[in-house]
Amino acid sequence: MADRLRAAVLGATGLVGQRFVSLLARHPWFSLEAVTASERRVGKRYGEAVEWYIDEPFPDEAAELELRPTRPEAVRDADVVFVALPKEVAAGIEPELARMGKIVVSNASVYRMEPDVPLLNPEANWEHIQLVKVQRQRRGWSGAILKVPNCTTAVLTLSLKPLLDRYGLEEVYMTSMQAISGAGFAGVPGYAIVDNIIPFIKGEEEKVVRESRKILGRLEAGEVRPAGFRVVATATRVPVLDGHLESVVARLSKAPGGVEEVVEAWEGWRSLPQELGLPTAPERPIVVRREPDRPQPRLDRRTGRGMSVVVGRASLPLEGEPLLRYLVLGHNTLRGAAGTGVLIAELYYKLVEQVF
Amino acid sequence: MADRLRAAVLGATGLVGQRFVSLLARHPWFSLEAVTASERRVGKRYGEAVEWYIDEPFPDEAAELELRPTRPEAVRDADVVFVALPKEVAAGIEPELARMGKIVVSNASVYRMEPDVPLLNPEANWEHIQLVKVQRQRRGWSGAILKVPNCTTAVLTLSLKPLLDRYGLEEVYMTSMQAISGAGFAGVPGYAIVDNIIPFIKGEEEKVVRESRKILGRLEAGEVRPAGFRVVATATRVPVLDGHLESVVARLSKAPGGVEEVVEAWEGWRSLPQELGLPTAPERPIVVRREPDRPQPRLDRRTGRGMSVVVGRASLPLEGEPLLRYLVLGHNTLRGAAGTGVLIAELYYKLVEQVF
Amino acid sequence: MADRLRAAVLGATGLVGQRFVSLLARHPWFSLEAVTASERRVGKRYGEAVEWYIDEPFPDEAAELELRPTRPEAVRDADVVFVALPKEVAAGIEPELARMGKIVVSNASVYRMEPDVPLLNPEANWEHIQLVKVQRQRRGWSGAILKVPNCTTAVLTLSLKPLLDRYGLEEVYMTSMQAISGAGFAGVPGYAIVDNIIPFIKGEEEKVVRESRKILGRLEAGEVRPAGFRVVATATRVPVLDGHLESVVARLSKAPGGVEEVVEAWEGWRSLPQELGLPTAPERPIVVRREPDRPQPRLDRRTGRGMSVVVGRASLPLEGEPLLRYLVLGHNTLRGAAGTGVLIAELYYKLVEQVF
Amino acid sequence: MADRLRAAVLGATGLVGQRFVSLLARHPWFSLEAVTASERRVGKRYGEAVEWYIDEPFPDEAAELELRPTRPEAVRDADVVFVALPKEVAAGIEPELARMGKIVVSNASVYRMEPDVPLLNPEANWEHIQLVKVQRQRRGWSGAILKVPNCTTAVLTLSLKPLLDRYGLEEVYMTSMQAISGAGFAGVPGYAIVDNIIPFIKGEEEKVVRESRKILGRLEAGEVRPAGFRVVATATRVPVLDGHLESVVARLSKAPGGVEEVVEAWEGWRSLPQELGLPTAPERPIVVRREPDRPQPRLDRRTGRGMSVVVGRASLPLEGEPLLRYLVLGHNTLRGAAGTGVLIAELYYKLVEQVF
Predict the structure, then answer these.
(1) Which helix (H) or strand (E) holds B264?
(2) Where are the catalytic residues (chains A, B, C, D) (predicted)?
(3) Chain D residue at shortest CA distance from B14
(4) How sure is the predictor about C3, in pLDDT bands with cuts at 50, 70 and 90?
């Protein structure tokens, strides 16, 4: 294997694809070699075909890449393939890529709940990466599929992990206020969302319920035993460009010794990605703001280059009950998609392949 | 008493004041005689002094009224006085008006929790109006102070009342997404709220907790015994002009026989204001939308001329648990302020004075 | 011909289609009999198939209409057909309908510049309706095609007409700030327009240039001689739901005797639709606001039920030059589309058919 | 004079003040020593007193600075004083500071039109800095007052300068679409601007008219002879956070040899700040975008770290006429305020003091 790993992005012109390209264009370990798009854009230069709408400068390194068709054989030269495709398209391509020996790091929701597919929010459950062995054994693949969680779930589970470890979790009530970018560039019409909220995102609540229990589950004998807490999730879409804000009430198994104790549990929490110094890992996975009016999406979504989640307004509202109330914010296309995707790939090469 | 009751609005140029003026300008029972404002506007005609920003046509009937100072003696000629003032200003004026014999219907938060002051969301607790007698006895007033609830609480308690009656209530977890108008015309800077959410509204959560228990409490021996359920409230401000949306999880005392049963309980519910045919009472206090993506603030806030609350997305998310999830929307300056104020006055004159 | 004329709306589920349905559902002359949509919705009831997003209550009268396919033979029973279709679809259907004897009132841009097709902004050029005779002669149709102007042009030309008549026009410099609804429900992605302006609308500037000269041209010997003034148009899209605002500098042929004289020319102006009392004609085609900060889209777009244009900030900025500066606002899907469409039909039946 | 110049910011907690602090905190020549605020914040640490709302990370270097009162004697230790105060407050302070020997670089509008005060948009009129000599002679000051232009004017004049030099200018028609931040943090209520445009900004149009002629005027015998072109300006406020977009039609003195020639004139243009390599000077003062739909405020306002203006959509719309149409965008609190302020200070120390 070469000095730098060759990376491809499938679906490189969408919002998540643009984030992948932005993160990979100057990555210390990966070299972005291939980008793909839908048929009508194939053959064009990335720099001219993409409508660059994200809040990062366009990476000139990617400008000259020629858009390839979104097919397995088109990325034969890649070591690692990042997938930012609709689930229907991803479903057919990903197993084929894994069979070809590719490391497939995918943001598509398909296969997330397969027992032998790791669903990784690295700081929360890096050890699930061992499922790769099971997957290869069972499927006979030389590559592997690794999944990025649903965006809302990625933000939520990061905030829950230290709570689960320290206090145990019984129930989680969550209402999300999700950014427009979560639906992709053209997913939410301007006429629908200005001066409005849409209190429904198809399939989202189900994903939060089942994915959070898998992510925070325990790996035992080659299987993930889902965590036992129950989740009630209500997902809404708000007129915000980037950053999902989540209002959470968590019923803990035992009462904390005060809010400050919880805050310290969050603030002091580090995990393997921090210890390994993975390039995309934020210094602090969870940043706690003590001002009464934070986190705010526009002000806080870039915290830790979009890879930290920001927690605020923690309180124990019902005397004598182990009930914790807080808000948590995360960047939905970084921590909730492409950033976590790149972090997963870094974890894989460091831990499994031991390349770096 | 004359055919029509003479009404005054204190603080008539603000957003809630404008709603009062709009509702009273053509009211069948009340005749708008007086409007007041802060010093610098006194003496001007209402039509030239007000910046009419609400989504109702300006009522020409009010154009020629001369703005009076915001002082008790300035509205000596009024029978009923509607108050849309900051609580600090209202605190000094309201008792004085009640002493002068005025019926004071107030949107200011001060005095809401006084034991002898009725806090009225008429469909939910019209019988609390009997506190007027206690109040007069205790204070020696010939008039009375009647209070409009906090806007978020007004919307919430209307949706809770049929649940409480039928199933009992143990706990309520609520996250609100509140409109800009809730802070008054200049209360939320444009630079703070575009592409953003502010997850904090000073004093709001405390109001929801205590007012909802008073409103849904039982009147016994001249006192309101607060309802026993517990409330965890998280209040946020979103880039929406009008209409508060609330995401609710209610732990009921006994399990409903299915979601449809709950929906029918809401839809079939009528109360005294409907039976009496009060002019401002909506035909249906609670409207249930069955589409998966409703209620939406922009589309639903005008339902029942802004006096209905709109419920959607009801579900029983945890099998075997009496836990009800839903969203409820209400117009914050109509059902949540001026509309309920006018409805309270109608109730008072119909029921207590028996004028109509 | 029956008492009431039978009307159909082609493309009834889009934003302009919804406006047509809303205006026709309770129209005194027209009876809405047929609505059409694209294939996947055919057969459904209008009330269940439409996503009603406009700021009018849904007209229950239209709820039970069954959606028909968008084909000429599907509206055989209609007298007048209102077209709210993309121009590519309209191009094939409209001539066929005219051949079948239908009065086709169309918002589609195709055929607007055909010499024998009247392009009508009724108050500005009602006399162009005489082109119907030329059209029938030339094409051998028993029906006719009548065109609604481009939305921006409709607003602009209404404000220009009294200026042209009184002072003559040399040049017009216009910058538009156009609402999201002008692109249709899903035409502008939320991610593109929040906290942004898009300074380009495909084909719009060309339409303003050529259509304004046709509309304000003179009918001579069965032909429209375009007005001679020149137009420089810059079109932008802004985060506003409804209402196009236009900043105008007009070089007049002779200098006005002061701004007040111009204001009076606008305010006093009435035209044939007002004299005939056509149901959809606003009392005043041009409303002038004298406040320094008007017109504002959200506050003024409903003026004259969306059929008046609102002018403000008129000034003569360069001493000694016949240069008039002002802003004009109009509701883009009422005055700029469906409202003017219905007004055209009213004019036709009153004037040409002399039915009413 | 020390190695690094000691800088103070008056009015450091407002939006423009925050930009000054952000630019100065890590500036190679200036050392930020003092920040001032209004009375109620004096004595607090900057880091705790400021509500940091701009899209730059908070500069930790400034966190511990203690807020001083906004008075001349409070910044006695500064060499250069940057002023981000309302004009009424600035009026009394600035002459006093200049008398004390301070270099006062001010964003306040007061004194901008004084004949001996340089109004500097450095790339456009750096040579006006010679007025400092006149000012000192006339006033007997050892310091000096240097003025930053009005934000809209700064953006406009940068785009006009190469046109004036090459083709001459007769008339300029400009409509601005200005960002919310132009009015300061709380200057535009959220309720006024969501789903709306306010077509009026007090005093703005007059500033554009007179300041643009001064900036582009010629320095002769110690006086600025205003440029002779006439300006018609219409200023509007739009729901955009940062970035003023301006739609311009310029009547040139002689016709360009085609649009491409004009584009090259803009793109090739460099001025003294670029030649001197001033730290805050953008590499290219004018960036031309060739896509049909640019510049867009959200996508382009950060070009050249907010110091470039971005031009697009240039055309010669009227055949045979020397009329140029284009749009220009600039960051209103960087190029239009604090960024230009810092650039002026750099120019002064390099050119007049020859310190660097």
Answers:
(1) helix B259-268
(2) 151, 244
(3) D191
(4) confident
Contact present, C52 and C119 (Cβ < 8 Å): no
Residue type, B332: N
Instruction: Report residue B66 as tokens.
Output: 């001369």
D105 within a domain of the structure (yes/no): yes
- Tell whether the model's pLDDT for residue B139 goes beyond 70: yes
Same domain, D166 and D275: yes
Same domain, A317 and A240: yes
CB of D253 within 8 A of CB of D322? yes
Dist. CA C160–CA C266, nearest whole Å: 9
Residue D206 sits in the same domain as residue D103: no
* Closest CA–CA distance from residue A256 to any residue of chain D (Å): 29
DSSP conformation letters of B33-50:
EEEEE-GGGTTSBHHHH-
Is there a contact between B191 and D241 if contact means CB atoms under 8 Å apart? yes
Locus of tokens 């309302």:
D86
Candidate from B15, B185, B191 with C-beta closest to D53: B191
| Tens-place pLDDT, residues A110-154 | 999 999 999 999 999 999 999 999 999 999 999 999 999 999 999
Residue B170 sits in which domain range? 151-332
CATH of the domain at C85: 3.40.50.720
How far is CA D91 from each of CA A149, D106, D210, D350, rounded to the nearest angstrom? 58, 11, 19, 27
For C36-85, give the DSSP string. EE-GGGTTSBHHHH----SSS---GGGTTPBEEESSGGGGTT-SEEEE--
For residue B340, which amino acid is it?
T
Q: Are residues C186 and C259 in the same domain?
A: yes
Q: Where are the beta strands (DSSP E) in A5-87?
A: 5-10, 30-37, 67-69, 80-83
Q: B129 and B53 in one domain?
A: yes
What stretch of H or E contains D145? strand D144-147
Number of domains observed in the structure of chain C: 2
The CA-based dihedral angle spanning residues C145, C151, C155, C161, taken in that order and rounded to the nearest 10 degrees: -30
Query: Is D331 an active-site residue?
Result: no
Distance of alpha carbon A317 from alpha carbon A327, whole angstroms? 13
With a CB cutoff of 8 Å and minimum separation 6, the contacts of C36 are C8, C9, C10, C11, C12, C42, C67, C68, C69, C70, C71, C74, C75
Beta bridge partners of C7: C32, C80
The DSSP secondary structure of C272-318, one letter per residue, reads HHHHTT-TTS-S-SEEE--STT---HHHHTTGGGGTSEEEEEEE--S
- pLDDT attached to residue A194: 98
Q: What single-letter amino acid sits at D129?
A: I
Nearest partner of D158 among D131, D122, D210, D112, judged by Cα:
D122
CA distances from A268 to A68, A89, A162, A336 (A): 45, 41, 9, 22
Q: Is the pTM of this model over 0.95?
A: yes
